[in-house]
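Teaching note: in complex prediction, the entire set of molecules is handled at once rather than each chain in isolation. The prompt given to students was simply: 'Predict the structure of this complex.' The entities are:
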Amino acid sequence: MNRILPFITCLWLALLPARAEDLFSLGTAAYRAGDYVQAAQAFQKLADAHPSSGVLQNLGNAEWQRGETGTAILAWERALWLDPFQEAAHNNLLYVRKVAQLDTPQLGWHEVISSWLPVNWWAWITGGSFWTAVLMASLPGILRWRRAPWQQGIAALALMVFLLSIPAHFGVDSRARLGFVLQKETPLRLSPTFDAQSLTRLTAGEPVHTVRARGDYLLVRTSRALGWVARTEVGFISPRP
Amino acid sequence: MKIMPTLPRGSGRPFLVALLALCLASPAHSAHAAPAAPATTNAPAKLPEPETPRDFFNAGTRLLKDGKFKEAERMLDSALVAQVESLQPATLYNLGHVRFQMGVEDLKKGPQPKQTAAAASSALQGATSASRTAAEALATTDMQRLVGAYMNGRGARRELNSAIKAIRKALETCGNVLSKWQRASSDFKSAFELNPKDQEARHNADVVDRSIAALIDSIREMESLSNAMGDKKQDLGEKMKQLKGRIPEEDMPPGAAGDEEEQEEPPPEGDKGKEEGPAKDGKEMTLSPEQAGWLLDSFKLDKDRKLPMGDGTNEAEPDKKNRPTW
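The expected output is the structure of the full assembly:
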């Protein structure tokens, strides 16, 4: 078994790109043929296996074409989460929100900062700047170098970048709790129960902030009210465990 | 059924105590009632305005006990909207009570479904009989019978219109009650879902569901009666038209000219319709002895029929002194 396992892993790794490529081709061909349901399915599978900004952008387009505003907005938001420089997704969101008369998510200043760069970059920036500052401050002492002004300058600069990146991390964390209503006419419940009284109906693609969870329900804050929605009725930018 | 008690500040597990058993309680459930009642004074002090969700819950529960259901619902809704997890099961439980009681109050105030249905059945029977009489009269050339059938039909139609109005009002009331009870049932079910140990909530949901089923039966019965009355009204109207066509102008009983308008309800125009019109100098109608005889005979035909039902507007006003003010 120990000898077979590496072989299976290698085979899987070799087949995976081909399969991903197939899915992409399938999705693109279906989209061009006007079969948006199949295109969305193919892009969704691909996005689940290899989430990337481009695939999510295509997924959003396919979902929008088949009339699923909520899932389309979620896909484009995920595309921007991975790559904020994706202009097509940004423009699509602006257009769809205008057409569907939907609110843009209200972001705090730290969330806005976090949206300037891809989420992974903030981890690299924070880690890199921290260790640069530590190394620049400690290496001359350890290696018995003469302290030069440029070393101290770099250390100070790295420390400053590190400190500035911390709010962005909080922004990333709170943006991860940002969800989007998937179906139209989703009831916002007064209590986390099946028979709950409906406070209002949410529109597909409406942004919601998660406050807490209870069982199969999430307490969410919308621009209109605070209430409960079923977990399955909301999609999140960052899939959480 | 019991009401969840008001919560003292800082009470850890509020749902283990119940304070008051309501009249709807089943014997099995009255055993759970009220271990301890809070100290009260005879003079009711004016309570401060509720600020916290707990205050709203307590205020709502107090108002529920006082029978002020509308205000109690508002208070309990405010407590629920605050999304305090520990308060929600008890709040939902009490909201179930409030909404069920609101429905009961509506039923008490409005026309009783069973009595309305019985009166409607009677009106329908009268209309059927009048329609049959009219058909029989139309088959003859006897003017006395024609006029008698016409008069009989006119009375039956008036009675039918009153019954239709009463049924509509009863259906409207039942619709309102149904929506309140459905909400109450959902509230009890939600309370049970949040706290599966709360068997009272489950029992109450069953009680409300049974009441809903009975109400729906009444609504269906009234709807079918309403449809039947509508058909009968149309049938009778056609026969009345035929009778009217057969009776010469000089033999026509008094008031026959206004029959066409009588069929349709006047459109509501606020107070305009209530104003008294200008006095008309009418010409006194003279009746021949024959015509008087026909009229009297036609009234005799109605002797077994009940008097037309009121549409509920003439009901005695409920005792305002005993009504809660809200």
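Point out the following to students. Residues 110-175 of chain A form one domain. Chain A touches chain B at residues 190-197, 199, 214, 219, 226-227 (CB under 8 Å).
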